[in-house]
Write a structure and sequence with these properties.
GO terms for molecular function: hydrolase activity. Keywords: Hydrolase. Pfam families: Amidohydro_2. It comes from Vibrio comitans NBRC 102076. This is Hydrolase. This protein has an eight-stranded parallel β-sheet, sandwiched between helices. It has one domain: TIM Barrel (Alpha-Beta Barrel). The protein contains twelve helices and eight strands. The chain is of the alpha/beta class.
Length: 292
């Protein structure tokens, strides 16, 4: 008898299957598609990330045993969402997307994108000057009526800095990658209590994605960031999402080894300590936020 060896997936180490029990309807709530052959990167991009296409991602989705996924426009494209929208069209009803914008689309444009599967916009805030409060508030007001959210890639310090804004936005908020809580401070950082309060008041969601990013303890356990994830689940499990962050642009840019995506997924069992909680994070929560 011959056994088929699973294919090696681009930007992912290992070939093992998940040890956790993956429920029907499971969703990867954060990944990217890079296709510079069809869609050129913005002129200022210096990362030059190789193609990480829909076909490659489908291999990872199959290895996970997931049914659903959320495509997030990566910074290499700036506010050009053509690659994301093309991927969304190819992936169909099992996919949703979060796009990047520099000006608010018209209501008719928003409705077209909504019908395609877009459910939010994302701001990458690398410094205080990048946070345009008036524009963020304008977007929040317009998007609330569509049931969309605003996703923030933002440091924990800036979450605290803009506390009053986050507490008063009219739409739902999502914080990427544990709100970038620094591993050395973890839940002692004041951003944790702020995110916890927003989650418990049904205003915000937090992705326990990219366990490797900023981890001091490192692979394979990433115990510092996993402890943060566990605390977020304990604080408000109804508002936690999980995402792979494939193809791991931070690791490629910094020339680090690619993580074993399935091993990182299995660490969810250390953060959500029952099957009920795992099902909630992988199925129920993304279904509510993204409208599956």
């Amino acid at each position: 008898m011959t056994h088929t060896i699973p294919a090696q997936i681009p930007f992912s180490s290992g070939r093992n299957r998940p040890k956790i029990s993956v429920p029907e309807g499971a969703c990867d709530a954060h990944h990217h598609i890079f296709d510079p052959v069809k869609f050129e990167y913005k002129k200022s991009d210096t990362t030059n990330i190789p193609p990480a296409t829909v076909a490659s991602y489908r291999m990872l989705k199959k290895r996970f045993g997931f049914d659903r996924n959320v495509i997030v426009t990566p910074s290499a494209y700036g506010c050009d969402n053509r690659c994301t929208l093309d991927a969304l069209a190819h992936m169909g009803e099992s996919a949703r997307a979060v796009i990047a914008i520099e000006q608010l689309p018209s209501r008719s444009e928003l409705k077209v994108m909504h019908n395609l599967g877009v459910r939010g916009i994302r701001f990458a805030v690398t410094a205080q000057k990048d946070f345009d409060e008036a524009f963020v508030r304008l977007c929040a007001k317009e998007l609330a009526s569509l049931g969309w959210h605003i996703c923030f890639w933002i440091s924990a310090d800036l979450i605290v800095k803009f506390k009053a804004v986050f507490e008063s936005l009219e739409c739902q908020i999502v914080f990427d990658h544990r709100g970038q809580l620094p591993a050395e401070q973890g839940i002692e950082h004041p951003a944790f209590e702020l995110m916890k309060s927003l989650m418990q008041r049904d205003k915000a969601w937090v992705k326990i994605s990219s366990a490797y990013q900023g981890s001091i303890s490192g692979a394979p356990h990433y115990s510092d960031n996993i402890a943060i994830g566990r605390a977020l689940v304990e604080a408000c499990s109804e508002r936690v999402l999980w995402g792979s962050d494939w193809p791991h642009p931070s690791e490629y840019i910094n020339k680090r080894d690619m993580p074993n995506d399935v091993a990182v997924l299995d660490l969810l069992a250390e953060q959500a300590t029952s099957q009920q909680l795992i099902d909630r994070i992988l199925v129920d929560n993304p279904a509510r936020l993204y409208g599956f």
